[in-house]
Fold ParA family protein.
Amino acid sequence: MRIWAVANQKGGVGKTTTVVTLGGLLAESGKRVLVVDLDPHGSLTSWFGHDPDRLAHSAFDLFQHNGKVPEGLPAQLLLETSCPGLSLIPASSALATLERKMVGVEGMGLIVSRALAQLWDDFDYVLLDNTPSLGVLMVNALAASQRLLVPVQTEFLAMKGLERMINTLRMIIRSRNTPLPYTIIPTLFDRRTQASVHSLNALRKAYPEDLWRFAIPVDTKFRDASEAGQVPSAYSGDTHGVRAYRRLLEDLVEQGRGQE
Ligand code: ADP
Ligand code: MG
């Protein structure tokens, strides 16, 4: 099982879109894929037609047992999606209350990791969608994953937020026993705008090692897909946005063979 977290402390950079699209492409290629919504806003959950304000069970349930994960609980939380081969553990708005409740609970940072350990034989890939704030949920995601994907919107202020994220990340990586390779993914790239072109160049200069070699372009199909609750690749296999994600996936799978 390969576990990738998609995180950035900034909202609106394409995290959820990256989870849905990579998840969909992996599922289409025959992999068994799980996407987990660890964002109390629940955009990933809404994408697949569930209302995070009304769900009786969600990832929140995992955190209700004093740092332990009861046998069988993760499997009970799985929801099927419109995309064959792609399952979802949804978020509910209750997740927003966790920060307060989890302080001082033993093992609180390892709950997602323990939950996924129970699903080890059931999935080939797990993608964890994250909230923009660094708290117990993101700590859980980073502890559980083998690679971190950091989507960064190609705009003038992109670098500022990214530096913060990378610093936080280095801090967390130091506290792990194993390395956590990361890939920075330029998103919402529009080569007709100066802002996009400049910020992509600046990113290349600042992060020559960790930056993905291409960028995800602006593609209105993604917005339409999220409104329709469809996995982009499933209905429009070949827009330029989906093609870019497909290339990203190939690179990630290739890297994973070497590093993770
Ligand atoms: P995050 O999860 O980081 O908050 P989202 O994936 O929800 O970001 O994306 C924010 C908004 O931008 C959504 O409306 C989404 O449909 C849109 N979006 C994301 N990626 C693209 C893209 N490559 N082209 C066009 N719109 C995009
Ligand atoms: Mg999101």
Notes: The CA atoms of residues 237 and 243 lie 8 Å apart. Residues 15-16, 39, 43 surround magnesium ion (ligand 2) (CB under 6 Å).
